[in-house]
Amino acid sequence: MNKMLKCLLGFSVAVVICLAGAPAFASASDDLIVERFENTYVFRTFLSDEDISTEAKDGVVTLTGTVAVDSQRVLAQETAGNIPGVTSVDNKLVTVAEVAADKADYWIGKKVKLNLYFHRHVNGGKTSVSVRDGIVTLRGKAATAAQKDLTTEYAKDVDGVKDVTNLMTLSAAPKVEERTPSEKIDDASVVAQVRTALRTHRSTSALDTKVLAREGEVTITGIAKNETEKALVTKLATDIHGVTTVKNEMTIQEPQAK
Prior knowledge:
By secondary structure, the protein is an alpha/beta fold. It has 7 helices and 12 strands. Strand 1 and strand 2 form a beta hairpin.
């Protein structure tokens, strides 16, 4: 009996120790989730200047605060949701636009600028964007005529834009930029950028797509209306920072019988 009592006592002590350590372990894991989120490429590049507070508890991430445009709210949710260990995201972020609806041109400009930043074959950092009554004016330097045209194409495809006037000038000596290993971007940020870009572009905003990334290799599934729409998704995703290859497995929607 004494031997059995000792065994039971030892087991009880072990259980108590394990239970006591569980909250500390969970807390450490939650802290790591927050740290990983705030160290992602997306957070450092697109969200660090916004008023965002991040908390994690038992794998559930809560985002509170304000962002400039809705695209950033989507970016934050998509990035947080792809962090290892995250089970769900409670996104309580609000846009400044929601409390200042009279500044429509300002927010259109913000969306255009953010959209240009996603794509590596345009120069969002050196493109000035101004908006008046929904008409976007672009200024700055383009490396080539093709880059200038692509900048116009991307800006026109943002919701709220009525037309685009592109006053960008061509660089005297266009330089081909080479990507270096240091530009490798985490997969959570790659997925967030691709999904947000597809939502931001008017031509693909209504598509229900699923995006996965592994070491920069992106796989997209979902349903497209036709081959043209599917090709557009591939084109936009391929031009996102951090994407190395795109495997588009979207299926074409069956035509409805008349």
